[in-house]
Specification:
Elements (H helix, E strand, L loop, with lengths): L2 H11 L5 E6 L6 H11 L9 H5 L9 E2 L28 H7 L4 E11 L3 E2 L5 E9 L3 E2 L3 E13 L5 E14 L5
Antiparallel strand pairs: 1-5, 2-4, 3-8, 5-7, 6-7, 7-8
Length: 180
């Protein structure tokens, strides 16, 4: 490992444990967005359309539940990359600009694991908080040399109940064959 690589590793390792959030949702969990998602995915599960079926799996009376896989969709930034008012203003993954500046501009998602604990119900307000769980040492990959960053995000409803979590890993890399 070169001195520059060692210095960069020490700098990025300082981001492990960095927390951000809560980031709020722009919209309340609603039937229209659930319907659009289900149509796009071809999912016809009745709990997403029928309040009686939803109640049988823990949904609120008179409402439907959202597909668990929509968990992240409720808290994503808007088109301009902004979170709604009241959200944390810190960078969700603060190590990313540091790696950009160090010459690692590429990014690719490598894997995502989700766990679901409670139904997300029509009318819920979802928020997310995250922590950088791990950053690897410099790895050589077919895409180029880079660092694997693992972020753990916890999703909550308006009652502070954890509805699920997501472990998301990206490779932040210098494209193979690039200079600099």
């Amino acid at each position: 490992m070169t001195d520059d690589e060692s210095t960069l590793q020490h700098q990025i390792d300082s981001f492990v444990g960095a927390e951000a959030g809560p980031f709020l949702s722009w919209d309340t969990v609603n039937r229209a967005m659930i319907r659009h998602w289900c149509e796009a995915m071809g999912d016809t599960n009745p709990v997403y359309f029928d309040p009686d079926a939803a109640a049988a799996v823990g949904g609120k009376e008179g409402g439907v539940v959202a597909p668990a896989t929509m968990m992240q969709a409720w808290t994503m930034t808007g088109y301009a990359g902004q979170h709604p008012p009241g959200s944390d203003t810190r960078e969700g993954m603060p190590v990313m600009p540091v790696l950009n500046d160090a010459g690692y501009p590429g990014v690719v998602a490598t894997n995502c694991e989700q766990e679901y604990f409670l139904p997300i119900c029509e009318g819920d307000e979802i928020s997310v908080s995250s922590i950088i769980e791990a950053i690897s040492g410099l790895k050589k990959t077919a895409l180029g040399a880079g660092y694997f960053i693992t972020q753990l995000s916890d999703f909550f409803n308006q009652r502070g109940e954890k509805v699920g979590n997501m472990r998301f890993r990206v490779l932040k890399y210098k494209p193979a064959g690039s200079t600099g």
